[in-house]
Design brief:
The protein is an alpha/beta fold and 127 residues long. The chain has four helices and three strands; from the N terminus they run αβααβαβ. The protein has a three-stranded parallel β-sheet. α4 links the parallel β2 and β3.
Length: 127
């Protein structure tokens, strides 16, 4: 972990005991295809992950395999993130991530959901 990430974690009092910390680098995620691969690796998605937007949404709204109460996605070098994609793709991904964050904050989002997942923080930080 680099100094910028460590400083952020210290300033926000985020510990690896309470958060699963996934870090992706915008330099390695200039295309949607690269992003889908790297986020799957960062969150240790199961083998059934389909490397598409529906699978991404499904996996980010599950995360049971991580056994952590909260989640943090750090995107390093955000100026490079999805730079080879049209603006609407970038905006769609940011919106998807923000929706995932909102859904985790609002569990249960529908009847019975609290039986298989608990309300959690899902923080997205671009640094």
């Amino acid at each position: 972990m680099d100094k910028v990430v460590l400083n952020y974690l210290l300033s926000e009092k985020i510990s690896a005991d309470l958060y699963f910390i996934a870090i992706i680098d915008g330099i390695e995620c200039k295309t949607l295809k690269d992003f889908l691969k790297k986020i799957g690796e960062a969150f240790k998605f199961p083998s059934y992950y389909g490397n598409n937007l529906n699978a991404l949404n499904d996996c980010l709204n599950d995360l049971e395999w991580l056994n952590k109460p909260n989640y943090l996605l750090i995107i390093r070098n955000p100026k490079e993130f999805l730079i080879k994609e049209p603006a609407d793709i970038y905006n769609h991904i940011i919106h998807l991530l923000e929706e995932v964050s909102t859904q985790w904050k609002n569990v249960p989002n529908y009847a019975g959901e609290e039986e298989f997942r608990k309300r959690s923080d899902f923080i997205i930080k671009m640094i």
